[in-house]
Structures are given as structure tokens and as C-alpha cells.
Amino acid sequence: MFTKIFIFVLIFVLSQEQSHGALHGTTKKMVDQANKNGPYLGLVIPNMFEMNPLLDNPHYKSSKLVIDYAGRRFRFGKIYKKPVILVMSGMGLVNAAVATQLLLTLFEIEGVVHYGIAGNANPNLHIGDVTIAENWSHSALWNWQRYGDGPENALPFEGEDGFTREIGYLKFGSYSTNGEDNLLNNVWYQAEEVYPVDGTPEKTQQAFWIPVDSDYLSLSKILEKLKLEDCINTTTCLSTPPKVTTVQRGTSANIYLDNAAYRNFLYTKFNISPVEMESAGVALICYQQRVPFITFRALSDLAGGGSATSNEADTFSGLSANNSVLVTVEFIKLLTDRYNRKLLKTF
Question: What residues does the Nucleoside phosphorylase domain cover (predicted)?
Fold first, then answer.
């Protein structure tokens, strides 16, 4: 009877601790203890579909430590002896940003790696390829222009620290099948307002293209020689062997993109390759917190399909998820090897 009462009280205390959102009590002790073993490399992963291949990877060794906080689960372990923390973000930019901010606020993090699958806007790339984008943007922050106004007309609140016409716009009328104008008119792409940790509080800066860490990017180019999986089974294989490739740009939006016309627009207008729903959230938080980050996104389909009836994502998404994990694990091995070489030079 006493044991049952104790367990009930413990669960109640922990739930109260979680509900108030403050870090104290048992959770604070666990976080403080965990940080004594840091710093860690943080891995932000969209969902369990993409996390499970890492949990099953032989190079990932779980420490069995798990800390649950604010609805998130932080898993601790090592990859090639590098201490890591895994956190599942969930779908979309808000989830990705929240998970990343919690990770950086709670724990001693030396850098962030984000990985997963993505749609593809680049006709020169193929399913299964793993992209390393040099820059990321959030491409669904729009100023939607009223009908009748055009590129020559100023936007509402345009000016210093306001909306801009500098990034570019999408004219819906350009995609009308009957050649007529479109009441949806134009949407203008806008930069995010960011608050760098080393900036002035309440003083915003504008950011549209967020660069990944230059050091991580340079190191990751070695991965372009990595052999990736190309078959689901003995009878279903990719027609083109997948590769690891560095691309100029990727973009995120709270939109599952499966439309060929918009895919072509993004590639032609901005030279975008991977299109998905989370990386820009991770990028914006790391950029503001001045924490190194890099993203590996494996292409699961050509957004909009090669034809109106194709749906390659259903077939090859598992293979693409595996390839994104392969690249992530090998990147961490490169980080570990480089650290060990530097350590040896100090002796």
C-alpha cells in the first residue's frame, strides 16, 4: 500500500513540475547531472519514422538515460564515442523550433545536426540522394498583395524593418491554365525577424537565407564519397544509384509540397533542392543562438511527381530515411576522428 501511495505522489509531483514549465526538482537534478557529461552534439529528428533507423544503428549506443520535459523526450547516448542527445521535434516549423530551443536551453550543446527525408525540387537530383544544403530559408512568410497592385506598388508597412520586395514574388496568374489573370494576385517572400543572442534585446534583424556552419559544411564534403543504400529488397531498387551531394539551397514551410508547378518555381527562382517542413526552424534557432548546425536531408520523391499519378514517397521513403541516418552517423564519426587527432597533437 505504501509503495502505491509513493508512486502516485511521485507521478503527481513530476506532472506538476511539467505543467508549470519550470525547471526544478527531480528534472533539474537530472539535467544538471547530465550536463556534467557534456558538451553534447544535439540531434533534432522530425519523427519516429526517421529516428528508429538511428536507434537501431549499431554505432548508436544508448546510455539508457531519458529526460522528459515540456512534452519532449531527450534520449542520451553515444555515436562513435561522441556524446549525443536525440530529440524528436514533430512535424512543422514551430515544433522544430521549440524542440531546438529546449535542447539548447536545457543542455550543454556544442552543435546541432538535423536529418530526415525531404521532397525534391531539383530535376538533376534523384530519389535516395542525400542533400547537404549550404543555406536554408522559411519560404512561407508572405506579404499577400491586394488584387490590382503589382511589382511597382509598395507593400503595406514596407520600409526599414518592415516588408520588402527585395527577395522576390510569386504571381499566381502566371500559372493560370486559361491564360487569364488570377484574383489571388502576388505573394512576396519575406525574411524572418530574428533576435541574436549577442544582439540588442527587442532589436530585430532580418534573415531569409540561413547558412549552415562553414566548418561542418567543409567537413561534410568528405561524405560525398559515401556509398548509400539503393535497394529496398532484391527486386525493388533505384534506377540511379543515390549519392551524397552539396546543394546551394533548401527551404521549409508548413506545407507538404506535392505540386510540380510550385516545385519548378522554387527551383527556377531560388535554386532550391530539398523542400520540407522543419529544417528552417532548426536553422533559425541555431542562427540566433550562435550554435553550429548542419542538415542532412535525403530525397524521397520528386515533389509533384514525375507524372500526375506517381507517388514515389510511398515506395522509397524508408530507404531515404536510412540513407539520411547513414550520412549523419558518418558525419559524427568524422567529427570524433578530428577531435581525437587534435587531442593527440596536444600531447
Answer: 46-332
33-62 residue pLDDT tens: 999 999 999 999 999 999 999 999 999 999
Per-residue cell: 23: 525547471
Residue matched to cell numbers 514549465: 21
> Is the Cβ–Cβ distance between 56 and 99 less than 8 Å?
no
Burial of residue 103 (CB within 10 Å: 0-12, 13-18, 19+) is buried
Pairing of strands 272-276, 293-302: unpaired
Residue 73 φ/ψ, nearest 5 degrees? -115, 125
Query: What are the pLDDT digits (tens) for 83-94?
Result: 999 999 999 999
Q: Number of C-alpha atoms within 13 angstroms, CB side, residue 262?
A: 17
For each of the domains in the chain, give its residue range(s) and CATH number, in order of start. 37-141+191-345 (3.40.50.1580)
Read out DSSP for 162-187?
Answer: SB-SSS-EEEGGGG-TTS---TT-EE
Tell me how many helices (H) and strands (E) the chain has.
Answer: 8, 15
pLDDT in tens, 252-308: 999 999 999 999 999 999 999 999 999 999 999 999 999 999 999 999 999 998 754
- Cα dist. 278→64, 138, 284, 296 in Å? 27, 9, 10, 12
Is a pLDDT exceeding 80 seen at residue 132? yes
**Alpha-carbon gap, residue 6 to 57, rounded angstroms:** 38
Q: How many residues does the chain have?
A: 347
